[in-house]
Amino acid sequence: MTSWVNTWEDLPEGQWLSNDEDGRNWYLDNQGNHWYSDSGGYRIHVVESTDAAQEVEPSPESEEPVVVESVAEDVTSRRIKFVFVGAGLVILVVVASALFVFLGEDEEPAFREVIYWSDSGRGFSFLDEYAEMVYPNDDSESFCEEWNTEYQNFYFRNAKQLDEGRPVPLTDTCHSQMSYNEYELTYEGDDMFRMCLWDLGVGQCQDIHVFSDAIVIRNNYENSCQILISNIEPSSITNRSLHMFSEVILNGEIRFDINDPWTNQFLQISRDTYNEAKSLDCFFPQYEYDGPRMVFESDSGEASQATNDSLATVSVAQQEDTVDYRDVQFLLTTTVGQVECELVGMERVENSSTGEVEIRESETSEAECTVQLYDTEGELEFWPHLSTGDMLVVKENGQQICASSCLAELQVLHLGEYLYRVDLEVNEA
Predict the structure, then answer these.
(1) What's the pLDDT at 416?
(2) Interior/surface letters 70-99, b for 16+ CB within 10 angstroms, e for the rest
(3) Of 261, 288, 315, which closes a domain?
(4) Which of 100, 141, 209, 390 has the fewest CB atoms within 10 Å distance of its CB?
(5) How far apart are CA 97 and CA 14, in angstroms?
(6) Of residues 114 and 264, which shows the higher confidence score?
(7) CA distance 118 to 220
(8) Rounded mean pLDDT of 17-28?
């Protein structure tokens, strides 16, 4: 194995460490070797042994000559000394381990600045001062501009040294500091960190359990856990495919279609962590969700002073399971409170006067909010089932739910469990 490389790109796989007090860059490869920047390159740090046998000169007070009777006797003596030294080291290690356990000390695991990837293709990195969102980079010359929005700016994380006057990237991934008012990361012991975020005075804390090449983020409020892994190459998502990629995530957590190679690889790798993390007594949606899987798309509507405004439109983009609409519930929450919207089927009816076919509600509802079902694929069903192509229009029904404009939340539930949840911004008509 070489002990010197010219550039950081030639370093074996591993992770960057904090610079020392002299500004020297340090790097830990996956074989446990420490590298440091030196003379324009990187060199392996070699620890000089302090246990090596030292030559002992005869004491000047001793006048009797030392006679070595044979090489065999010398070797035997050295072996005996080695055995005693080895036994002493073993005893020392055992005693030290016992003291370690007895004193309740817990060494903090390596966790900070490692990139952990979620099943959506997004990554996260946690530091003492802030947390980062991470995306792959498909064009190293763009300096991550492909991910920039008016709300977030992405950048390469750079080392302190320069290459021809330019910063040297630590990774070829794109990073952006997550936005929040306050951030706190503390080590709680037993390989667990607690991350707390505050935004506009509202705080939320999550427990992060560290495993080998993976973490488990626990939502204490819902008692659900999500697995993120570090030992996988970045996915192939780009700013042009991100939206499509996100559509295969159910409720932001569960893959709808797991036929793509990257997702298959993710689930195979993370299963070992799942088997190890079962002892956390937590719900793992990635492996334990057994409800119907489907993907929705939605658009906000418009509101006015009228009482029959269409507030939102929801369509079924993909489905994996058959769901009876009688088991589906629609809840709309606005500043005036929460209302349940009644499902009303739309049917084609011929106008006896004009002879034209019109689409009308199949029944009259007394609810203050309705959901009009345009069942494009199941008009002949005795009772319709949720299926791909269905369009659902959320409407006021004689009541002022949203005047002029408002913020709303629409929840679609199946037997009390969430199928879909979306925040709506209803604008003035």
Answers:
(1) 83
(2) eeeeeeeeeeeeeeeeeeeeeeeeeeeeee
(3) 288
(4) 141
(5) 28
(6) 114
(7) 19
(8) 74
CATH number, residue 408: 2.60.40
Say how many C-beta atoms besides its own lie within 10 A of residue 407's C-beta.
13
Per DSSP, 8 falls in state G
- Choosing from 242, 269, 288, the residue where a domain stops is 288
The total of other beta-carbon atoms located within 10 Å of residue 142's CB is 13
User: Dmax over Cα atoms in the chain, in whole Å?
Assistant: 134
Helix/strand/coil for 5: strand
CA–CA separation, 333 and 51 (whole Å): 71
Q: What is the DSSP letter of 283?
A: B
Q: Which spans in 8-70 are helix H? A: none
pLDDT for the residue numbered 102: 46
Do 176 and 318 belong together in one domain? Answer: no
pLDDT (tens digit, 9 = 90+) per residue, 95-116?
Answer: 444 444 444 456 889 899 899 9
Q: Are residues 356 and 314 in the same domain?
A: yes
What is the three-state SS of 87-142?
HHHHHHHHHHHHHHHHCCCCCCCCCCCCCEECCCCCEEEECCCCEEEEECCCCHHH
Give the model confidence (pLDDT) of 129-153 as tens digits: 999 989 888 665 667 887 877 667 8
Question: How does DSSP assign 355-372, residue by residue?
Answer: --EEEEESS---SSEEEE
Say what the pLDDT of residue 230 is.
Answer: 93
Do 409 and 415 meet the contact criterion of CB atoms below 8 Å apart? Answer: no
User: Is 381:293 a contact under the CB 8 Å cutoff?
Assistant: no
Cβ burial, residue 347 (10 Å; 0-12/13-18/19+): middle
* Per-residue pLDDT reduced to its tens digit, 171-186: 778 888 888 889 999 9
Question: Which residue from 154, 153, 150 is spatially nearest to 136, judged by alpha carbons?
Answer: 154
Same domain assignment for residues 305 and 329: yes
Q: Show the domain range for 187.
A: 116-288
What's the domain count of the chain? 3
